[in-house]
Every structure is written in structure tokens, then in C-alpha cells.
Amino acid sequence: MKKEKKALLKPMEELFSDFFPWLAGQYDKESGGFYYAESSKNVENYLPDIESTAQALNILERYQLIERMPIEMKQKVITFLQQKQNENTGYFLDDNPNMVNDEVMVARAIGYCSNRLMKFGKKPLYPLPKKDSSAPTYMESTETYKDWLSNIDLRNSWRGCDRLGVSAVYLAQLSDDTRQDYLNVALDFFKEIQDPKTGLWGEGSMYVRISGTFKLHTFYSKFNIPLPRREKIYESILACLKTETATDMCYIRNSVNLLDYLDLKMPKSDLFDVIKITTENMKKLKRLDGGFSREIENSPSAPNVAQVKQGDYYPDMPVAVHLSQGLYEGDMNASTQAVLIHMLCYRLANLEFDYRHPNFESFYSMIDSSWV
């Protein structure tokens, strides 16, 4: 059975044959950060950004390469992350002035930077935002929090649930007793608006609703709480994989990630279907430069607004934060997801993630020949 599962995963692993030279090429030795895409380097003022750097580091961690990182590079990365923090507010921000107005990007950057610094044995230079300082006004009380939750527009489940889910960052900063009060408000609200037939949240296509459910699962997982109506969610994901077209790497990752979090026993036939369909979907997003692209037609230049597709509408969308020229190329957003999908498929198959690529040994020398 193990050999059969390994053979099933081989076509997926062939997609990573030329991946690591691409990844090494996105590192910027001067700043200590990683670029979003190859075309990011060719535009003035497009610099390595927080999210792409965090995603690249996640890739290195998942393949157990971060332990081999040269000390010089590690210090550069630490400095890159620490210097992104604003001394007055505690937020981590890129130079792009539009980022500060995207609540999802801002909240996510707190987690990206503080968690990675902690793993490196370091701390942020300044205190993080808290309820009594520069946290959002909706955190002033459980009443304002409930009002904020109930006013989030869920016509696009993916975007709406992303907004709901990132509030977990601020709940995590509260004392245990206070946090529980906020948690109770959130969990009661989420249960109330969940579709009992599908187990999904919000509106949109099946992949959009699954992606929204994935975004909301990040709230539950932050506090180690199982999702309600797990069996219904499982059935919805399997039906979607077999009937819908995945046009975004997020659709592929979100489905697999949710299946893993549901932690339900998966019949062999379902497992094989999931891995085969997932591999075929990933092939469509593999690019000649070695990376993976978020979307089929091209790599979105501003991933912060890529949840709402052309022809769809969501109110009060933030201004696009452009990270590249949006060419037909690999990007860090999709590539970190491809790696996570790879790892999660091992977990779904109940296999140890023992993947080793020939480029592992030489990865850091691809960045700097002196790092052997």
C-alpha cells in the first residue's frame, strides 16, 4: 500500500524538478528578503515584501532546509523582518503606502513576522498592537466585535471569511479570560451563519465558498477548535473537486488543507481521487521558470485583491498592492501553496513526509557560491 501511495505521488513530485533554482533566484542578498516573482526585480520601487519572504521561509521550513541556512543569511532575514515594524503602532508594514489600508494584509503581517522571529529565537523590536493601543476599533468590546462580525459582507465568501478570520490575530493578544468572551461571541456567530446542508460559509461558486471556509478554519485552528459539521464540509469538497474547474492555486490548496484539518477517515478511493485531481490541477499552474502561478492566464500582480475575480464584485475592496508585473510566470504566493499541497498529500496518505530533492544539498550555494 505504501508503494502504491508513493507511486501515486510521483507525478506531483516531478513538478518540482526545476523548482529550487527558481526559489533561490527570488532571494535578495542586499535586503534579506524574497521577491514575489521574477518580474518584481525589473520594476523600480518593487522590493522584497513581508508576505513573499514569509512564504519563502515556510517553503524552506517544510523541506527542512531552514536548519541549514547560513548564519549570514539568517541574520539578514531577521533584520529584514524586524525593520519592517513601525515603532509607533507595532504593525509590520512594507514600503507600499497602500498596504496599511488593507486590514487583511496588516493583520497577516503581524503573524508572519512575529512567528518567524520567534522561530529564529528573536523578538519584534517593539510591542505588538493590543486592544488598548492600536488594534482595530472593533476590538474595543465584545459588543463592538459582534457588530463588526455581523456587518462583514459574505457575498464573496473567500474575501468575507478572510476578514472574519484575521480577527483571531487580535484575540490572541488578549488575556485568557477576556479572549474567551470574544471567542464565545465569534463561535456562536459562525455557527449561526454556517450552511447546514453544505457545511460551508458565505456565497459564491463552490470553490469560492470552500476557500471562504478555509479562511474561517484559520480562526478555528488558531485556538485548536474543530470545525462544526465536518462531514458536510468533506462531502462538499469531494463534490467540488470532481465537478468544478480549479483556476487558482488557492482553490487547490484550500481544498486539500481543509481535508487535512477535518481529520476524517478517508476511503482509499477518495484519497486516490483527491491526489490525482490535485496533481492535474497543479500541472496547469506550473511555469517554465520553475515556479507555480496563482492563476492560469498569468500571475496576479496584486495578490491582495486576487480573491475577487474579474466580473465579480465585493464592496470596499482595498487598493491593489502590486508586487510584480503580473506576467505568465511563477510567483511566491502560488509556490508556497504548491509545497504545502505536496506535504499535505503525504499527510492525507498517512505517509511520513520524507521527500528529498537533489537540489537540497546545493540550495544555498545557488544563492551565494561561498555558502557551501
TrEMBL record:
Domain of life per record: Bacteria
Protein name in the entry: Squalene cyclase C-terminal domain-containing protein
The species this protein was found in: Anaerobacillus alkalilacustris
